[in-house]
Write a structure and sequence with these properties.
It is built from 17 helices and 8 strands. It has 344 residues and is α/β, with parallel strands linked by helices. Strand 4 (81-86), helix 5 and strand 5 (114-119) form a beta-alpha-beta unit. Helix 13 (257-279) packs across helix 14 (284-291) and helix 16 packs antiparallel against helix 17. The chain starts with a strand and ends with a helix. The relative contact order is 0.09.
Length: 344
């Protein structure tokens, strides 16, 4: 069985991708499309021959016979050919259909001038607890192809990526500004790329070369996150109304109360860590290094702490523990979470 690899590991294999099959899966479609674009550039550099050497089969039109036909046709004026099986929905495939797919892919050795990429969106395949405990379907597929997991980058990596993209558009943005953009616009790389392009044009139009936090507030569209990120931001801002609104969306999505409480507990844990380190004389940069979180988030946590006395913070921690006990012992609904947010 082939091991699950990362986007970075896959990119080191692009030059030797011919004769191999890969499964692109995971939540970050921006990185999948970037990897697919670079694979095309490496295997099919002649656009005039793309009709013959760059073949895409959509899931709705896929049959094992169509895939085999695409595999048997040799490349034109090239050593390699790319076959993309696009938008595969493994959740709707019967076991016999997956068997037929695997059987066809197993014949790749006969036509080793092909590179085959199965592209599937998040939710279209059972990932299990990848990469350590992959699902049964991933294990089956890994017998004939190499799974490539595209995970969402951390906030810190997104901020560094944003900084490089600003430079590409002819402007600069300090790390704290890039972190503020991620916090404001969300973690979607597609959305961030659009906002970076828009902000860059705005700054250049105004005769400047550096993006500021004020520009983000003026130009960038704030993300409406129906999840724990919105709840986290609302709590850090001390905005009870926004926190309850975020909770309402999570209730609609039927997010487990214990999961929501876990997010709140994480915030309190980070706040307590920041309090201890700052009281010990550490700078926000040093605290960020120790806690392994972005310095911008440390600044937000420190700002929240400035509005809370140690005595009140201890009381809120008691409420958090009591809410945790109530949820775990009685399997209550969202009522305890609502009362906790009201207390916060």
């Amino acid at each position: 069985m082939n091991a699950i690899i990362t986007n970075e590991e896959y990119r080191r294999k692009i030059g030797q991708a011919a004769g191999r099959a890969f499964l692109f899966f995971g939540p970050e479609d921006y990185l999948k499309l970037a990897a697919l674009r670079d694979t095309r550039a490496a295997l099919c550099p002649d656009e005039a021959m793309a009709f013959f050497n760059d073949v895409t089969i959509d899931f709705i039109n896929y049959t094992p016979e169509k895939l085999l036909d695409a595999m048997t046709a040799p490349p034109m004026m090239s050593d390699a050919k790319l076959i993309v099986l696009r938008d595969f929905d493994f959740t709707s495939m019967r076991s016999s259909e997956i068997d037929a797919l695997l059987e066809t892919l197993s014949r790749l050795d006969e036509f080793d001038y092909n590179c085959i990429i199965l592209y599937t969106a998040e939710g279209m395949i059972d990932e299990g607890a990848s990469p350590k405990r992959p699902s049964a379907i991933l294990k089956r597929l890994a017998e004939v192809l190499t799974p490539v997991q595209f995970l969402s980058p951390s906030d810190a990596r997104l901020a560094r990526w944003a900084g490089k993209h600003f430079q590409h558009h002819g402007v600069t943005a300090p790390p704290e500004v890039c972190a503020a953009l991620v916090d404001h616009a969300g973690k979607s790389m597609f959305i961030l790329a659009n906002e970076i392009e828009k902000l860059s044009a705005y700054v250049l139009e105004h005769g400047r070369r550096e993006v500021t936090v004020g520009d983000i507030r003026q130009v960038a569209v704030p993300v409406v996150l129906p999840d724990a990120f919105a709840l986290s931001n609302a709590i850090l801002a001390g905005d009870g109304k926004a926190a309850l609104a975020a909770l309402a969306v999570m209730k609609f999505q039927r997010v487990e109360p214990t999961v929501i409480l876990g997010e709140i507990a994480r915030i309190f844990s980070d706040m307590q860590g920041v309090r201890v380190l700052l009281d010990a004389g550490k700078s926000t940069k040093e605290a960020a290094t120790v806690l392994k979180i972005h310095e911008f988030r440390v600044t937000l946590l420190a700002k929240s702490l400035s509005h809370t006395t140690p005595r009140r913070f201890a009381k809120l921690a008691e409420l958090l523990a009591a809410t945790d006990m109530q949820l775990k012992s009685t399997y209550a609904d969202y009522g305890p979470i609502e009362r906790l947010i009201a207390a916060l």
